[in-house]
Structure formats: C-alpha cells, structure tokens
Amino acid sequence: MAGYIFKILAHASPKKMFSAVNTVHERSGKNRIGVFFDMLYCAKKYGAGYYDYQIFAFYNLTNKQRATYVTRLISKKFNTFMNDYDYAHFLENKDEFNKLYKDYIGREYVQLQEAGREEVEKFCSSREYIFCKMQDLECGHGCERIKVSDYKSFDELYKYLTDKGFCTIEDNIQQHEALSKLYPNAVNSMRIITALDSKGVAHVLYIVQKMGLGGSIIDNNCLFTPVDPETGKILYPAHSGDTLKGIIYTEHPDTHVKLQGYTIPYVKEAVQMVLKAATLTPQIRYVGWDVAVTANGPEFVEVNEHPGYGFIQFPANTPDKTGIMPDFKKAIKG
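Structure (tokenized):
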C-alpha cells in the first residue's frame, strides 16, 4: 500500500490534490486527513483520481456504491478494450467522416482540399452564413461561424479560409425551434453514447443534452443534462461545464427556460440513427455521437471516439447514487 501511495503522489499535482481535499472538507465537513487517505484508497480500489473523487462526491458514497462508477482509469481501460484506434481516422478526419456518414448529415458541405476555387465561391455566394471546421479537431475547437457579407470580396474570404487551414465549410445548421428556445446562439446538440456488444449489436448507453451559454457559438463545456431516450424529456437539472465548481442549474441562466421535464424533439429518431451508424465502423465500438435536431429531424454534427465518462454520473444526476458501470457491463455482454 505504501508503494502505491508514493506512486500516486509522484504523478499527482500536490497543489490540485490538496485543493480538492479542501473543497471536499468545505462541502462535507469531513476531516482533511481522513479525506486525503480516502482519496488514496479510492484511487487504488476504484481507479478514481482526486478529480473523480470530488466531482462524483465519492465522500458521500459507500464502497458498494463507488464500485458502480466508471472512473478515469476504468474509462481508459474501457476505451482501449472497445476501440481499435487504427480505425479512428474514420471519425477524427472530417473529410472521411463526411463521406462515410453522408446519409446522416442533412446539410451541404464542401471539402476545401478537394474542391476547386469556383466550387467554393458558388457555395459561399448562395449563403448568408457558413460554418468552418478544422481537419482533426473535435469538441468545437477551431470552428468558426462566418457571415459571408463581412468580407468585401470572395477573394478576401477565400484567402482567409485557406490561410486559416479549414478543411470543411458547410451549411450553418438551423436547429429546431425547441432547441433555439433553450439557447439561440449555438447548435445545442445531444451527445448520444453507443456501444457495440460482443455480437456487434449497438446499444445506447445514455443521452446528454448540451447547451451553449453566455454568448458562446458552440455548446461544449457550457451546460449539459441527461435526457430520457424514450420520452425525450430532460431528466435532471443541468451541470456547469466547469464540473469542479459543482454548479447546478434548474433553468438556463440566459433564457430562463426550466430544464427538468423539457422535451427535446426527435429523440427516438436520433436513437435509431446512431444505432445504425454505430455499425459502420465496428472496430470502434464505443462512441459519442453529437447530434443536432432540425425541423426535419436529427443529423450528425461530429463524433467522438473518446466520448467521456462523467456526463451522467454527477450527484444531481444520480439520486440513487448508482453510476453507469452496470450499464456498461450489460452493453458489452449483449
């Protein structure tokens, strides 16, 4: 045990760890020394780092309850077990993704490395806005929404697009009015997590509705909350993207829409879509699909082969104090 403790301490940030200890002490009233050693115990027993310990409120859980949570170490092992990353380029590369999943992308796009200048000009000239993406980035990094008329000429716009290194320009998604009501400045997508079992059958593990916040044009790291796959209703209050703060929102702070019970349209159709799409790259068995909802139904925004594990395990989302490990095991076995 002593050797393991020294190993943990060697790879940890002492400043962040003791900050987590202090935060847990303030929230729970528990003794700092006791919290510190309980963190080390949970790291060894459950693969939970001090970040997991804090955001999942392990300090309020029994050992039996802790064992139901997917932690950082378990998530890493699960990703490695489920996904052959020699095939990840089909998901990471925007051009390859658009070609493979074209039946599930309900908008027009141009791949800049393949298109001629005239094709790009024709695409831009007929649109008020275009949405631009980088090749191998995800979670909205490097994306820009551009108003075409902001540029004096197409030459100026084309130079910006090519100098910037965008790989794809596409239609700006017009989301369903129910999603715009939640937050109008970003496409508020669902993150739908799927897993292929040992027989190659796809299962939905859970759904999270993401929402933009405070003027952001993307929905990542803003607000998120679980959604019922059957009814499309938001199940719980939303969490802040800054999960360490533990802030809970019963309504969207910008639009003041009450969240719990709010219905997201076309959820069943989105579920059927991802279950079909999940079988196209069977070598990547564990995936997080970002799905937009338009007036005509769901369509893909992008996909993540490292879908994250925390979305649905926060205290406000687990009133029974049970994590998602049982669902993961069930999905794998089929």
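The CA atoms of residues 192 and 207 lie 5 Å apart. The first strand starts at residue 109 and ends at 111.
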